[in-house]
Amino acid sequence: MFYETHWRSIIKAVSWRIMGTVATALLVFIFTRKLALSLWVGALEFTSKIGLYWLHERVWDRLRFGKKEVRPAVIWFTGLSGAGKSTIADKVYRALQERGLRVERLDGDSVRDIFPATGFTRPERDQHVRRIGFLASKLEQNGVTVVASFVSPYEESRQFVRGLCGRFVEVHVATPLAECEKRDVKGLYAKARRGEITNFTGIDDPYEEPTRPELRLDTAALSLDESTLRVLQYLDKQVLRVS
Amino acid sequence: MFYETHWRSIIKAVSWRIMGTVATALLVFIFTRKLALSLWVGALEFTSKIGLYWLHERVWDRLRFGKKEVRPAVIWFTGLSGAGKSTIADKVYRALQERGLRVERLDGDSVRDIFPATGFTRPERDQHVRRIGFLASKLEQNGVTVVASFVSPYEESRQFVRGLCGRFVEVHVATPLAECEKRDVKGLYAKARRGEITNFTGIDDPYEEPTRPELRLDTAALSLDESTLRVLQYLDKQVLRVS
């Protein structure tokens, strides 16, 4: 709940008063051609109306009528490890933040840092994604736009999340497996190939491609900046319009 | 992010203009004693300033200065099954909602309905409470006050949640076990005694009492309305003050 401080109302009253009084004095002068009279009316108006204006502001701050909120959404990035999800999501997040939007960032790695006990078996991953989806939907219901990036490899889990959310934008960061493995930023593909880690998506656990994502980004063909722009353009056109 | 609709600005301008023009016309009349002149100045002022005022409103809507938000908090009800947590929490939630606060309600039963796979062993309960705490903290960080009611029997899990939140208000609904078992609203104590359900708090799983809760409610001595009032009074004094 936002409310306006008394300082805001006072300074707004002064700001308006300067505009208003100049206009009044000018009008009186045009009609009467008496400079002294115009200035007197102006001076009296200035002092009396500044108080009235302040009062008017305080009453209006209590009225909800016509105060609208930008409708939030859940922007969900899915894709293989190393596909570029987090990087693009970070850029989208900052761009939305700069517009003054209330926005939250949820990332697979950082959430797992807080919950180290979360496993990688199918039921564990499924529950994990569902719970994050529930969190995202609760934020959305409370006016917060969510930028989430999770491997989220199972179609069923993502559909569950879609069902919870009001406006769900599924962004498939569709970097091919070969490209992700070539990059191997965190060295995880090598470990998975050596069998040092198991249940690794793309190697010994499936990635179920989204059947109808709102957006599909081929980062082998698009740069990170181009990908970010695609997402923002989509959001501007389809999702975050201010009516 | 809130923004003001054009309608709000226009109607506010009219509302102010009626006050302002009456004041101006009166001032001109007091100085000149000419009724016709006063009405003419008033009429011209009315038409010219309504546009100026509207413009002024649109510019101010862009300025963040002096727009403050009520600081949110996480109000966490803990206690045995049947202690009265949900009922008191519901009443607190509605009271805060009526004040126009942005507030979310999280309840053990309804969250478990969405996540039926959540178990009742110590690690499962611990993880469950931690995850709910994470959700609550994310809502709080985004300006939402959270009213949560969970058995949350382990001190360690609750301390973890406290650590995540900015302003954590732990409310121990301290109804004695004997009283809860006597009520047995959902018939769960009987089932637990018969061994039909296991890991039931108070019977075959411990309830670790909060060591230093912000509030302790003895619902054996206090009615539900009195308990609710205690919580609201505490929040008004310690937590939700608007500076």
Automatic annotation (TrEMBL), chains A, B:
Residues that coordinate or bind ATP: G79, L80, S81, G82, A83, G84, K85, S86
Pathway linked to the protein: Sulfur metabolism; hydrogen sulfide biosynthesis; sulfite from sulfate: step 2/3
Record Pfam families: APS_kinase (PF01583), DUF2061 (PF09834)
One Gene Ontology MF term: adenylylsulfate kinase activity
Active-site residues annotated for this sequence: S152 (phosphoserine intermediate)
DUF2061 domain residues: 10-61
Species, as recorded: Gemmatirosa kalamazoonensis
APS kinase domain location: 72-218
EC number of the protein: 2.7.1.25
Catalyzed reactions per annotation: adenosine 5'-phosphosulfate + ATP = 3'-phosphoadenylyl sulfate + ADP + H(+)
Name assigned to this protein: Adenylyl-sulfate kinase
GO cellular component, one term: cytoplasm
